[in-house]
Amino acid sequence: MRPKIYLFGDSITEQSFGDGGWGAALANHFARTVDVVLRGYSGYNTRWAFKVFDRVFPAAESGGSEPPLAVTVFFGANDACLPDGYAAFQHVGVDEYKRNLHSIVSSLKNRWPKTLILLITPPPIDEDERLRHPYAENPSGLPERTNEAAGAYAKACVEAAGECGIPVVDLWTKMQQYPEWSKAFLSDGLHLTGEGNKVVFEEVMKKLNEGGISLGNLRVDLPALADIDHGDPLKAFQ
Amino acid sequence: MRPKIYLFGDSITEQSFGDGGWGAALANHFARTVDVVLRGYSGYNTRWAFKVFDRVFPAAESGGSEPPLAVTVFFGANDACLPDGYAAFQHVGVDEYKRNLHSIVSSLKNRWPKTLILLITPPPIDEDERLRHPYAENPSGLPERTNEAAGAYAKACVEAAGECGIPVVDLWTKMQQYPEWSKAFLSDGLHLTGEGNKVVFEEVMKKLNEGGISLGNLRVDLPALADIDHGDPLKAFQ
């Protein structure tokens, strides 16, 4: 059986197999070695994510399979919705957000002690763009998310990773190192463009590599064409 | 557990999670309902594919899981390599190709009687482009594949599907209905451009829909955001 990498997160994960998406890019990179399994749930915050944890990752006795190689945990964009904006029902306070991340990581570690768990912070927010692309009626004229709030959740996520001793991609900080980050990386002030997807893919790849998960260390599923003897092809399949 | 759709084929399947790829597009379309599982093996013909069948689809007793919803079987581009060209080691005669397709389909039907099995014919070939993009030294000055040969295999594939009573996407015929099919759909006279991937995606989607596999008939994995009560979100997760 091929090993798996699970992508667990919100809409930025659920949409990651769209054109140029970071999830599809991972699946393509590991095409002959790993199954990349999509577990993205649009709109979810860490409170809801933890509630459904056992349904997302069924225990071995109920049909769950081998320990995955890695799990990306990519939440916070919805937790960081402002508590008085139109998306307030998705809001989770930053302290609870951090506790929930700890709970999710602990549950993964308990189940699969050797699996690489990788946290990803929410991306930065472009507030003007959020006003141009609301996903519900917004008569207030105020954005439902701010970059400052997203930054506080990103900081909490980085701290949680440090406390758990696991790697983290600080997307909020990384993206803002580029001029024009909003236009380059965000399609609606929150979700990712092709270039934004590329940043996530490259940062996730770096952390997987650092954790020993790379093509050089993985078994290719069935003989590669280059290893098939032109004079006696069937030998490779015995 | 989410149901699965397996994509079983050669390089045109293995590369299907690349940018704009038909496999990624399927995974994206079914993001909350189905796991699309990549089982593409570059360079493989049906003889090799049948040899490895039990390793690609492990039987239930050795960790194989629930019957998949569907399996796409997309071979022929390598079988159709000319028997006297530089890729002759991949060649399989058209009669054996058809028998091998029958064997693969029978094995799938035996294992999973209710699974939708969908054959896909090889795409058309642009011989001039193949000479410009050889994948091995080719001093002969002749292409290793011809469109005529690919057409014979496509015809055999369509016949096999008819004999097995299963659906088929006749990609060879479909693509050539468009003027400029080579430039539009093929990147190197054989593999697919973004537009070519779109044709495969759309044709596969049609057949899945006709077989009753569509978002309207599938269970969404965990509550959709639209079904979550803003006043009492946790109710949806009880």
What does this structure look like?
2 copies of one chain form a homodimer. A 5-stranded parallel β-sheet of chain A has the order 2-1-3-4-5, sandwiched between helices. In chain A, helix 2 crosses helix 10. Chain A has 10 helices and 5 strands; from the N terminus they run E-H-H-E-H-H-E-H-E-H-H-E-H-H-H. The mean pLDDT of chain A is 95. Chain A has one domain (4-237): Rossmann fold (3-Layer(aba) Sandwich). With 238 residues, chain A is of the alpha/beta class.
Write a brief caption for the model.
By secondary structure, the first copy, chain A, is of the alpha/beta class. Chain A has a single domain (4-237), classed as Rossmann fold (3-Layer(aba) Sandwich), CATH 3.40.50.1110. The first copy, chain A, has helices at 11-14, 22-29, 46-51, 53-56, 94-111, 127-132, 147-164, 171-176, 181-185, 194-210, and strands at residues 4-9, 35-40, 70-74, 116-120, 168-169.
Quickly list its features.
homodimer, 238 residues, alpha/beta, Rossmann fold, five-stranded parallel β-sheet, 10 helices, 5 strands, globular
List the helices and strands and how they pair.
Two copies of one chain form a homodimer.
Chain A: E1 4-9, H1 11-14, H2 22-29, E2 35-40, H3 46-51, H4 53-56, E3 70-74, H5 94-111, E4 116-120, H6 127-132, H7 147-164, E5 168-169, H8 171-176, H9 181-185, H10 194-210
Parallel strand pairs in A: 1-2, 1-3, 3-4, 4-5
Helix pairs in contact in A: 2-10, 5-7
